[in-house]
Every structure is written in structure tokens, then in C-alpha cells.
Write the C-alpha cells for this entry.
Amino acid sequence: MNALKEIEKLLPQDIEKRSFEIIGEELEKLGVSLPKEEELITKRVIHTSADFDYVKTLKYSKDAVEKAHELLKAGAHIVTDTNMALAGINKRALARLGGEAHCFMADEEVAKLAKERGTTRAAISMEMARKIDKPVIFAIGNAPTALVQIYEMMQTSNWRPAFVIGVPVGFVNVEVSKELIMETDVPYIVNAGRKGGSNVAAAICNALMYEITER
């Protein structure tokens, strides 16, 4: 019963606001001051994961946030590697900017080609995404093979993704796949190390959009 005394009485619309206040207080206690252009993205990832390690591990290429905003304002599409991330991306906010979100993982053609070629559906999905005739922001939260495929397509052609959000989670090839993206000249937001996930990929997309649509 004593624990009930610790419950904060908040209206539903105030819970997220209070969460961000707590995150700010915790960062202040840790003596952390985030770069202004990265602050809201990093805080939303912490809000999604309750993990303050992202303060250290989220890596931004030069002017990454500014470039992502420019792409979104120009109607860039978002391609992700899981339907979970697709569900988490705010499609209404993206549509207001003229963009669409895609996930090709459940496509029959993707499954067929992956089986024939002995590779993953995530890798084939990246090839499908290359056919989109608009700038594409790739939001990868699960499959390191998707990042590897993006890198390999860059090495074997003149094609370049407009932007890469690389936050797959796991143990096999996860860290090296992120390192490959950070070696390229493509703008990125990448989480170094093993942590990440579809929820983190969606959170980064939403944070970037909210900075534009809520101003």
C-alpha cells in the first residue's frame, strides 16, 4: 500500500510531458548536456527505451538532423525493416510532410527472392526500396543484413540512400553493420553497439518529424 503514495496523478495527455521532464532531471543529475540539435531525438529514444546509455552510444554524422529535416520537408519516404517499426512511425505526421512509410518484409516477391538467393528478406527489401523514385530515409531497427545490403549496393553502383537510421539490435553482425554505415559519406544516425530495436528506429523517425510539424 505504501507504494501507492508514490503514484503521480496525471492526465493521459500529461504523462509524456512529465516523462520528458524526468529525463531532463536525470540528465542534469548525470551532468549531461546534449547538443541542442540532437537533444529531442536522443531524449525521445530514452523515453522509448528507458535507457540512458543512448546518451553515449547514439552517433550523428555532421549536420545529420538538419539534413534529415530537409529531406522530410521535401517529402522523403521512409523504409523500415519491420512491420513493428512501420506501425510505430507516425504516418499522419509523415503524410503532412508529403511522405509515405514502407515495409516490404511481408511481400511475397521478397520472400521468393530471398529463398532463391539464400539471403534474408531484409536484404531483398533494401533492393526493393531502391526502386522508390523519391529520396528514401532507411530506418533499420532489427536486421543488420539490411545495413550490410545498403552498404554493398553503395559499393557496386552509383546509388546512395538519402539517409540511414541504423539501430538494429542483437549480437550477430550488429556492431560491424553499423560501423560500415558510419564509414560511408551518407548522413546517418546510428547507435553504436548491440542496442537498438524497431521501437528505437520509429522513435527517431517520429522525433525528427515532430521537430518540424510541432513548431
